[in-house]
């Protein structure tokens, strides 16, 4: 909001809401574009052809967004390292285009729920740019680590995405609920969601310095979540927040070492940020018992 550009940020309640907003906006943009390109097709014919993509490692909220948006989301196979790469997306898009479908959006994850794997944003962005597909990044958990210079690698490629969300209620010590969402071009969301009534009019309408957040979200009214973000930031400071994230990482490193030094256990995936995935060696039943 600090410049004249079309970008902007909004605080949503949850990652699920942010993903849904991105999916709905991308869908509406695609419908408008295809109606111009193919006036011979009806709107319902176009809507019936829309298709979206994510990885089979993405959070359940991605699939749910597809259900609510009435747009199938293909869960593409991640690699053996559980990372989704451009190659898999390119193959799926090419097949779908061949069969007459309209690719709309790809939702990548930085920090998957299962193992905190980071999808390859650079290669996904290249494919999305080639096919005019919206790229959203769900960084619900790992996004908090964007604040650390030593985690700069995590941010690779995010300047090329259309939208991004991360949960301040995860790593950033803000209490639930609070999910930050950024949009490269907020007009794409506002144009999709703008429904006016006479009782919603006000004298500052259309002034970009005073965004009308009701057009950026599902509900009409909003909670004042920015207040608790402000209080948390003012209380702890940027260094305090960084220290908190670093503490989580160092605790996970300690735990990883304990697992590695113990013959009864093994790591299932490489440690990532504060997450260590491990299991007892041997039969799966032992893992089930331990979990219980
Ligand atoms: N995305 C990822 C990667 C997550 O790990 C989670 C929750 O664990 C979510 C989305 C859902 O978050 P929310 O409860 O804010 O919708």
TrEMBL record:
Q: Which residues carry this modification: N6-(pyridoxal phosphate)lysine?
A: 170
Keyword S-adenosyl-L-methionine recorded: no
Single GO molecular-function term? pyridoxal phosphate binding
Q: Name one GO cellular component term.
A: cytoplasm
Q: Look up keyword ATP-binding and say if it applies.
A: no
Q: What keywords are annotated for this sequence in UniProt?
A: Lyase, Pyridoxal phosphate
Q: Which cofactor does it need?
A: pyridoxal 5'-phosphate
Give the matching Gene3D superfamilies. Answer: Aspartate Aminotransferase, domain 1, Type I PLP-dependent aspartate aminotransferase-like (Major domain)
Q: Which GO terms describe its biological process?
A: amino acid metabolic process; carboxylic acid metabolic process; catecholamine metabolic process
Alphabetical list of PANTHER family matching this protein: 3,4-DIHYDROXYPHENYLACETALDEHYDE SYNTHASE, GROUP II PYRIDOXAL-5-PHOSPHATE DECARBOXYLASE
The family this protein is said to belong to: Belongs to the group II decarboxylase family.
The molecule here is called Alpha methyldopa hypersensitive
- Its gene name is amd
């Amino acid at each position: 909001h600090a410049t004249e550009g079309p970008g902007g940020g909004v605080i949503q309640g949850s990652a699920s809401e942010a993903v849904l907003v991105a999916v709905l906006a991308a869908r509406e943009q695609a419908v408008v574009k295809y109606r111009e390109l193919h006036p011979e097709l009806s709107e319902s014919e176009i809507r019936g052809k829309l298709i979206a993509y994510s990885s089979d490692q993405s959070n359940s909220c991605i699939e749910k967004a597809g259900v609510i948006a009435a747009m199938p989301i293909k869960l593409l196979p991640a690699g053996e390292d559980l990372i989704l790469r451009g190659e898999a997306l390119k193959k799926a898009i090419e097949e779908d285009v061949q069969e007459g479908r309209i690719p709309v959006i790809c939702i990548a994850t930085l920090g998957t729920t299962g193992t905190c794997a980071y999808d390859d944003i650079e290669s996904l962005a290249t494919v999305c740019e080639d096919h005019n597909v919206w790229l959203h990044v769900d960084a619900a958990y790992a996004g908090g680590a964007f604040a650390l210079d030593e985690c700069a690698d995590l941010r690779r490629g995010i300047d090329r995405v259309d939208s991004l969300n991360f949960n301040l209620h995860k790593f950033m010590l803000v209490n639930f609920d609070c999910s930050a969402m950024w949009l490269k071009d907020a007009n794409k969301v506002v144009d999709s969601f703008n429904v006016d009534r006479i009782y919603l009019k006000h004298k500052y309408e259309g002034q970009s310095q005073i965004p009308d957040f009701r057009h950026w979200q599902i509900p009409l009214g909003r909670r004042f979540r920015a207040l608790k973000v402000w209080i948390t930031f003012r209380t702890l400071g940027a260094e305090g927040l960084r220290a908190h994230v670093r503490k989580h990482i160092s605790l996970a490193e300690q735990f990883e070492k304990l697992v590695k030094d113990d013959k009864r256990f093994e790591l299932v995936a490489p440690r990532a940020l504060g997450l260590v995935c491990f299991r007892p060696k041997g039969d799966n039943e032992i893992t089930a018992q331990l979990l219980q």
